[in-house]
Amino acid sequence: MVVLRKLPGMPGWPAALGLRLPQKFLFLLFLSGLLTLCFGALFLLPDSSRFKRLFLPRRATASASSSSSASSSSASSSSTRDTDLPRSPPAAAEPRHASPAAPRRLREKLRTAARMAGPPARTAPGARQQVQGGEGRAEPATGATPARETRAPFRFDYERFRRSLRHPVRGGRPGEDPETRARRMKIKEMMKFAWDNYKQYALGKNELRPLTKNGHIGNMFGGLRGATVIDALDTLYIMELEEEFQEAKKWVEKSFDLNVNGEASLFEVNIRYIGGLLATYYLTGEEVFKSKALELGEKLLPAFNTPTGIPRGVINLGSGMSWSWGWASAGSSILAEFGTLHLEFLHLSELSGNPVFAEKVMNIRRVLNRVEKPQGLYPNFLSPVTGNWVQHHVSIGGLGDSFYEYLIKSWLMSDKKDLEAKKMYDDALEAIEKHLVKKSAGGLTYIAEWRGGILDHKMGHLACFSGGMIALGAEGAGEERRQRHMDLAAEITNTCHESYARSDTKLGPEAFRFDAGSEAMATRLSERYYILRPEVVESYMYLWRLTHDPKYRQWGWEVVKALEKHCRVEAGFSGIRDVYTTTPTHDNMQQSFFLAETLKYLYLLFCEDDVLSLDDWVFNTEAHPLPVNHTNFKAAVQQ
Ligand code: DMJ
What we know:
Layout: H1 2-6, H2 21-42, H3 50-55, H4 58-66, H5 70-75, H6 101-117, E1 132-133, E2 137-138, H7 146-149, H8 158-164, H9 178-202, E3 207-209, E4 214-216, H10 227-238, H11 242-255, E5 263-265, H12 266-284, H13 287-300, E6 314-316, E7 322-323, E8 333-334, H14 335-338, H15 342-352, H16 356-370, E9 381-382, E10 389-391, E11 393-394, H17 401-413, H18 419-435, E12 437-439, E13 445-447, E14 449-451, E15 454-456, E16 458-460, H19 466-474, H20 479-501, E17 511-513, H21 535-547, H22 551-567, E18 568-569, E19 572-573, H23 592-605, E20 617-619, E21 625-627, H24 633-637
Antiparallel strand pairs: 1-2, 3-4, 5-6, 6-7, 8-9, 9-10, 11-14, 12-13, 14-15, 16-17, 18-19, 20-21
Helix pairs in contact: 6-13, 9-10, 9-23, 10-11, 10-12, 10-23, 12-13, 13-15, 15-16, 17-18, 17-19, 19-20, 19-21, 20-21, 21-22, 21-23
The structure holds 1-deoxymannojirimycin.
């Protein structure tokens, strides 16, 4: 109205009825514009708004919030929250993603999806198929475009899945030599010892403190308990520790509580809890593991409500509020954290029938594909608000590591159909080879870190997984590349072995350097510790399976002996503070990944290749096996 009064020659509102024709026309035009604006605004209101529910049918609001692509749903989320200071939980208003309505809708969807996932899919392969969407109802397949034809059903049939495996899960074990068997049995005994002590002194806590004989809870899992139980489940199963597996399962059924309220690492909850539960479900077919995984997966979704859909690192599992780690540059998200969700999230979609999980991780990939990479490299810190890099630190060790691992494993898990992931991996590895791979004066190959163009000649223990990863990826390359990558994988694994061989305990330090005359040894006091990490034996396991060079079994056995000598204490296994002394002090912590990864990879090193065969299974970054999957998620979520 103020505008009307200001128009030249235009009388005030009461006189509007006496307007001349052109003026009336102008007035009507303005009115219709105003109406259009008002109705348009309805679509931008939060889902919980009463006005929106009054004017729009329920179906539209539900799908807008929970089934839309991560980018679109997150773009409409509160932008003020997105400029929160790192690590400070949103203080005032309840964030939109934590509104009680959204989880309820998702729960409804999952319940419906779970019902629909029950019976075997009747649709013949290649036939026109449907994807569930919105409120969990099967959407009519509109517009029979070729992409639509390839849409996956998201209908999971456990029996059919088991029939599709190319090898028996726990292997056939025909005529093996007695020494290999004895070594495997020794590792099984170590697992039993680690589990029995955890069960006796710390069952239900996250880790065992083997010196003080009590439990540790910590603050990584947002109030969730039993990290060691969940991490140990599939290892107990694979090692045929039946009684112990039943003990662990009973704890999950009776005591594993997901209604917790605390700050959790999205990454850690995903790789340990979701990964562990999914793997155990696929191995055993026991519903309890599937339903817990899906329920927990749902609790992670609010972390993705950012302007880019790149999730924040920390989430309160009760309220759904999320924020960035205080130590991460300028409120950024960490490459190795948001880049290590893909495998588990695709399986959550597969088992729930709900594409929302797949959409979230596909969107992460889209953002990463769009952003410019300095010299083809992926820096470790990305802003979830702008989608730009925050700092140019590149590392194949901590902060970057499992992002690369999940690219190549996405390709493998898709039965080599996810060519986009393969290309991203190939391009990233090419840049790493060009800029970060170096040879020391003593002839050891290593992968340096990169800080804005300046090399830091250091490798973390975490980076030692890369030998195995590069060997795995070599498989899909052309002949010249394949050989080059197999050589690189073997050289890096050799360097990591050297970092163990050059220590007094024969266990490797947290980081080792190639500067100031140092070769594969820690030069700082703060880098001399070993916390039962798996990465070096992980590479031995892959290199053994892919080359059958006996040295990898020998090296693995050296680790077993060193663990027994320096890390085994009266009530479990403990990390040590200094690998360069034969009388090390213990850190009083039996990490859950020791049971999930270190002991599992050592055991597999002394198994036949068909036990958890690489033809059927892909290990997540916590060594939880997830099966190769044939669903075309990309086609499905693009609809
Ligand atoms: C594990 O939790 C996982 O392997 C992760 O990817 C990196 N760190 C630990 C073990 O060192």
